[in-house]
Automatic annotation (TrEMBL):
The entry's keywords: Protein transport, Transport
Species the sequence originates in: Cercophora scortea
Transmembrane domains' residue ranges: none
Similarity comment text for this entry: Belongs to the MOG1 family.
PANTHER family registered for this protein in UniProt: RAN GUANINE NUCLEOTIDE RELEASE FACTOR (PTHR15837:SF0)
One of the protein's GO biological processes: protein import into nucleus
SUPFAM superfamilies xref list: Mog1p/PsbP-like (SSF55724)
GO molecular function: guanyl-nucleotide exchange factor activity; small GTPase binding
Organism classification: Eukaryota, Fungi, Dikarya, Ascomycota, Pezizomycotina
InterPro entries linked: Mog1, Mog1/PsbP_a/b/a-sand
GO CC term, one of those recorded: nucleus
Tagged with keyword Protein transport: yes
Name this polypeptide is given: Ran guanine nucleotide release factor
């Protein structure tokens, strides 16, 4: 795993949020239009992307493991759409952000999505074998907001070592290992500089 990754402090949403992202990730909004409630960064040397989404809070008021767990599932289902049957969640954990108040609930899940193979589509060569998702949900109840931080890690045949990966045994392989490191860096450095952001989006 490359712990030599260089990071830079990156302003998000015009500086209302800030966190450390890997140096080798580029801001997608410089290449194409991105929705106002999203920031998207992509690995210049690979296929991994990091997406920050500011969304409306889902579920009832208050925080409980059960309610927050359902909210996480709802967001995951919205993320993958009709492909929910192709998704397997491997684990879900409570997450502590270093620079957010400890009473702000946050959770992270690791899942994989395996594309269903349609025999009528022989040109699937470039499609990934599977995509790993590291999805972190930050619940800002006072702001009626859920922040989603999604790291998408497509695994394309020939671009990764299949023998290195067995999530059932806890073997993540290099690409997922790197993404977990990116996520941990985000949890450590993510900061809200302007809370008014959540009344605008």
């Amino acid at each position: 795993m490359s712990s030599k990754t260089a990071y830079r402090s990156t302003p998000l949403f015009d500086g209302a949020l800030v966190c450390d992202l890997p140096d080798k990730f580029a801001d997608v909004s410089k290449l194409r239009q991105v929705p106002d409630n999203q920031e998207v960064y992509i690995d210049k040397d690979g296929f991994t992307s990091i997406i920050f989404d500011i969304t409306e809070r889902v579920g009832p008021a208050g925080s409980s493991l059960e309610g927050d767990g359902r909210a996480l599932t709802t967001h995951l289902e919205e993320l993958v759409g009709d492909d929910v049957d192709t998704v397997k969640v491997w684990n879900t954990t409570e997450t502590q952000f270093t620079r957010l108040s400890s009473n702000i609930p946050a959770y992270t899940l690791i899942a994989t999505q395996t594309p269903s193979i349609d025999p009528r589509e022989p040109h699937r060569a470039a499609a990934p074998d599977f995509t790993a998702l590291i999805l972190t949900l930050v619940r800002l109840e006072k702001e009626s907001t859920d922040i989603l931080i999604t790291i998408n890690v497509p695994h394309i045949k020939g671009e990764y070592d299949e023998d290195e990966i067995d999530l059932a045994l806890g073997k993540q392989g290099e690409l997922i290992g790197d993404a977990v490191e990116y996520a941990a860096k985000i949890w450590e450095s993510f900061e809200v500089r302007d809370w008014n952001l959540f009344s605008q989006v």
